[in-house]
Amino acid sequence: MAKPRHLDEFQRIARFFAPLAGRGALRLEDDVALIDGPAGTDYVLSTDAIVEGVHFFAADPPGQIAQKLLRVNLSDLAAKGAAPVGYLLTAALTDADDETWLKRFSAGLALDQKRFGMVLLGGDTVRSNGAAILSLTALGKVAAGTALLRGTARAGDALYMSGTLGDAALGLKSLKGGLRTLTVRHRAHLVSRYRLPQPRLKLGRKLVGLASAAMDISDGLMADLGHLCAASGVGATVETARLPLSAAARAALRHNRSLLETILAGGDDYEILFTAPPSARKRLARLEVTEIGRIEAGGQVMVLDGDGAPIALRQGGYHHF
Ligand code: ADP
Ligand code: MG
Q: Closest Cα to residue 303, out of 155, 159, 157, 149?
């Protein structure tokens, strides 16, 4: 029997929304939109929505929900080399989100807007009959023409990432009752990486002029590297032996080798994935980044195990539909 036709997130965007996109939208193939700003600057725009029961749960600490909502957008700005300016917030809340909830939610925003140097610019507050939905649009700025894009990687570039890979996906597994063999400390580390991403804003700004292409890892390394390669018309090779892993992730892998797949394909890391020509290698050595592979001609993305043999992966990353 033929399967019912079902469009995934990216097919929906390509078919129904991309035809509407205008100048600055980067064909909806990048993390952000770019708009001419005041003399010598470009404005950078990113938006993300989170849904109760899907991206967060009613019992989650409201301050952390707020911080994650802001930070996933800041991560997109960071990956473009932009500095934050302000944000708009749309809150569709239910009756369960009472004054106490709002107080803690807004306190989370207060902490982070101060930490990251931005202000609230506006938004909308409405009532939802179903799940609560929160949407945030972040505005940033970058020197005109210098934003880092996804579509500009070239064969021969090296492939890098910031921070460590897979912690957030392992943290989610732990929250769901998995990874019982890990120590409490390791599990707490992984869960905090899932709950509270660290947008790499300082690093992103240092990559301007060094990186040839960049994006943040939100849907998983494999999926997002696939997007970067597709946008650039190139392929890539990733060496698993070089992947930056936290002590907790290494411990998890020692207990269960098959978690390598979770690490490669799992989402929510919010690290920066970027490419740079060999001429940038020396200057990059001073930054907290790890070379994980290289960009190749052709369109294939390959993952090599410790012996240099290709690995077959089942999941391609997180998809919303
Ligand atoms: P990210 O993971 O960086 O937040 P997404 O994968 O969510 O980016 O989105 C990819 C691109 O598609 C972005 O340019 C985004 O602005 C665009 N996009 C997603 N949904 C819509 C929509 N409903 N209308 C217009 N553009 C959209
Ligand atoms: Mg992104």
A: 159
For the stretch 47-71, pLDDT in tens is 999 999 998 888 899 999 999 999 9
Q: Report yes or no: 47 and 137 within 8 Å, Cβ to Cβ.
A: yes
Q: What is the pLDDT of residues 261-280, one digit of tens each?
A: 999 999 999 999 999 999 99
Q: Ligand 1 — pocket residues by CB below 6 A?
A: 13, 17, 28, 30-31, 48, 76, 218
Do 42 and 165 fall into the same domain? no
Please identify every residue whose CB atom is under 5 Å from ligand 2, which is an ion: 31, 76, 216, 218
pLDDT of 1 strictly over 60: no
Considering only CA atoms, which residue is closest to atom 15 of ligand 1?
A: 28
3-state per-residue secondary structure call for 189-238: HHHHHHHCCCCCHHHHHHHCCCCCEEEEECCCHHHHHHHHHHHHCCEEEE
pLDDT above 90 for 166: yes
Residue from 13, 133, 219 to probe ligand 1 pocket by mutation (most atoms less than 8 Å from CB)? 13
Cα–Cα nearest to 301, from 211, 216, 236: 236
Question: 84 alpha carbon to ligand 2 midpoint, in Å?
Answer: 15
Residue-number span of the structural domain to which 238 is assigned: 158-304
In the chain, the number of structural domains is 2
Q: Which of 10, 28, 200 to mutate to test the pocket of ligand 1 (most atoms within 8 A of CB)?
A: 28
Choose the final residue of a domain: 120, 143, 166.
143
Q: Whose CA is nearest to atom 11 of ligand 1?
A: 28
33-36, strands of its sheet edge to edge: 33-36, 41-51, 133-143, 83-93, 119-127
Please state, in angstroms and rounded to a whole number, the distance separating the CA atoms of residues 129 and 219.
29
